[in-house]
């Protein structure tokens, strides 16, 4: 099934008259009747992706939430049509978040109340952590360590707030987001029906530190935007280019219809009149051109031939990465207690061989990487690779067996390597690592598992073949590589790394940030605890009847993030 212009002329005319009579006109870019169907593997469960950051909720947020900009490869790309972010004081470090004139899809303007609510949730001023939460984090997650607790100065006339932080922060441009409408939260939490009065009531509750009101606000923030929950229709109010028009009640949030948001006037506006998200079938590639217009899939041996066939028939096929890098991690303990032993082992394992064997028929889809803190193609990557010394430190051993002996490791010393046995790349990469290690006198043991997370948590392993999230901020780098990181990957304890992460956390200049990231990478390389291998690819397959579908690289850069560019080919 190709993209469609489904609405019959009489019905389309009637709908157009109805919409014109009761709502703002759609952007002129929208082609009436056009539609694109997406084979979607996720589910929409909450209109607040900050409170419930599942892949599906983040996908919908990418289409329905506007913001000051996005982090792309660790660097901020601004959206000036939404507003501006600027440093107004270095001491104390104060940032002004200033809205232009965006509006919610119900016609209520975004203003200082919405910014203040976003600040209160991000800073911990209101307790948005669900009761009983244990605070555990996974790789890439981080808790703010430098949140501002002083209530921001509000400029209601200018739709702006000024936030004073205890110290300079590296992510000052992206720290504040507007996830949900303040007037909806306040109406539900405080019982104030008039939208503008509700906004003012929320501001008052925060400024006066009203404990009871803030508890109610936090509860609505956490739970109210669950689809079909307390705020119901309010959960679907949008500030972005699209809004959710319908959620199928019988599909657990897996079937949705999105339409252009008539109140949105961003830099780029939608071209299609409807986007339908439907459950991806057991063989999503086979549905392209027959049941759906676009799908995203992992590169697997089972779909290589089918995708090749579509590409030969001029179906667009695009390869991006998901913001993770395949990595061989070493745990600093046991056989790898000493840095020389770790370095000797990693230098004996050629990352190119692991990528080739792991990728198999999909070798062309994988991009080799020599960094943990940036992705190839990103602005910081070349600087990190040039300055960090990865190639000299962890590749190209002249005599890997002699290096092992020099490190005091006897021939045949066993190394337990854990990996996901069901993952094609991991299984192939393990085989390549085992062969290379054997040549250097290491005895690489198969500790493959069907429960990778459980095996990593249980411990007892020496090495692990895993996908590691490329961190975007200093907090995330600290969570992964800091001594007390909440999501520590290998239990690394290195004061030099901690000091550099602390320095990065207070660096506000983008060029200085790149230099400090390179220094952190160099310190991790010196510790010899990780060998980056390749970026994890995602394959996007598109029907020939649609255009403009260009997935973006990186974590959080979902297919739907670029939906404003989609269009139907006449």
UniProtKB/TrEMBL annotation:
InterPro entries noted in UniProt: SBP_5 (IPR039424), SBP_5_dom (IPR000914)
Residue span, Solute-binding protein family domain: 88-359
Keyword Signal among UniProt keywords: yes
Domain of life the protein comes from: Bacteria
Keyword Repeat found: no
Signal peptide start-end: 1-23
Pfam families: SBP_bac_5 (PF00496)
Recorded coiled-coil stretches: none
Entry keyword set: Signal
UniProt protein name: ABC transporter substrate-binding protein
Organism the protein comes from: Microbacterium lacus
Top-level taxonomy: Bacteria, Bacillati, Actinomycetota, Actinomycetes, Micrococcales
């Amino acid at each position: 099934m190709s993209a469609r212009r489904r609405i019959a002329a009489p019905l389309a005319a009637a709908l157009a008259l109805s919409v014109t009579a009761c709502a703002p006109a759609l952007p002129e870019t929208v082609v009436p009747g056009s539609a694109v169907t997406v084979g979607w593997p996720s589910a929409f469960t909450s209109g607040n992706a900050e409170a419930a950051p599942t892949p599906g909720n983040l996908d919908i947020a990418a289409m329905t939430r506007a913001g000051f900009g996005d982090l792309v490869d660790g660097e901020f790309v601004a959206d000036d049509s939404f507003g501006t972010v600027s440093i107004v004081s270095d001491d104390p470090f104060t940032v002004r978040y200033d809205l232009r004139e965006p509006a919610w899809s119900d016609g209520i303007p975004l203003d200082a109340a919405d910014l203040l609510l976003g600040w209160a949730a991000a800073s911990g001023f209101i307790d948005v952590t669900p009761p009983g939460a244990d605070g555990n984090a996974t790789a890439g997650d981080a808790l703010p360590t430098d949140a501002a607790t002083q209530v921001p100065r509000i400029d209601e006339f200018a739709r702006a707030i000024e936030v004073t932080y205890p110290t300079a922060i590296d992510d000052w441009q992206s720290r504040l987001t507007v996830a949900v409408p303040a007037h909806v939260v306040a109406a539900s939490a405080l019982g104030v029906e008039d939208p503008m009065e509700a906004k003012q009531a929320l501001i008052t509750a925060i400024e006066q530190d009203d404990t009871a009101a803030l508890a109610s606000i936090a509860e609505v923030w956490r739970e109210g935007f669950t689809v079909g929950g307390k705020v119901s229709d309010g959960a679907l109010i949008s500030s972005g280019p699209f809004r959710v028009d319908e959620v199928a009640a019988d599909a657990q949030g897996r079937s949705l219809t999105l339409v252009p948001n008539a109140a949105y006037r961003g830099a780029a506006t939608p071209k299609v009149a409807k986007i339908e998200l439907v459950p991806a079938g057991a063989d999503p590639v086979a549905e392209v051109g027959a049941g759906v217009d676009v799908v995203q899939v992992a590169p697997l041996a089972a779909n290589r031939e089918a995708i090749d066939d579509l590409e030969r028939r001029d179906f667009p096929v695009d390869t991006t990465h998901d913001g993770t890098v395949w990595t061989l991690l070493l745990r600093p303990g046991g056989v790898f207690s000493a840095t020389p032993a770790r370095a000797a082992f990693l230098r004996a394992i050629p990352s190119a061989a692991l990528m080739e064997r792991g990728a198999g028929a999909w070798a062309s889809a994988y991009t080799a990487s020599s960094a943990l803190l940036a992705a190839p193609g990103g602005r910081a990557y070349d600087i990190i690779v040039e300055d960090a010394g990865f190639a000299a430190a962890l590749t190209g051993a002249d005599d890997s067996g002699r290096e092992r002996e020099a490190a005091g490791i006897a021939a045949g010393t066993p190394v337990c390597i854990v990996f996901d046995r069901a993952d094609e790349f991991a299984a192939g990469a393990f085989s390549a690592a085992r062969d290379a290690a054997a040549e250097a006198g290491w005895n690489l043991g198969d500790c493959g598992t069907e429960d990778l997370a459980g095996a990593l948590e249980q411990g007892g392993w020496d090495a692990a073949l895993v996908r590691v999230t490329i961190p975007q901020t200093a907090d995330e780098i600290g969570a992964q590589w800091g001594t007390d990181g909440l999501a520590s990957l290998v239990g690394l304890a290195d004061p030099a790394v901690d000091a550099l992460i602390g320095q990065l956390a207070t660096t506000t200049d983008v060029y200085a940030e790149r230099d400090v990231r390179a220094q952190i990478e160099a310190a991790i390389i010196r510790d010899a605890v990780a060998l980056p291998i390749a970026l994890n690819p995602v394959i996007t397959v598109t029907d020939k009847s649609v255009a403009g579908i260009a997935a973006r690289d990186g974590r959080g850069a979902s297919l739907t993030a670029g939906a404003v560019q989609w269009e139907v080919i006449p």
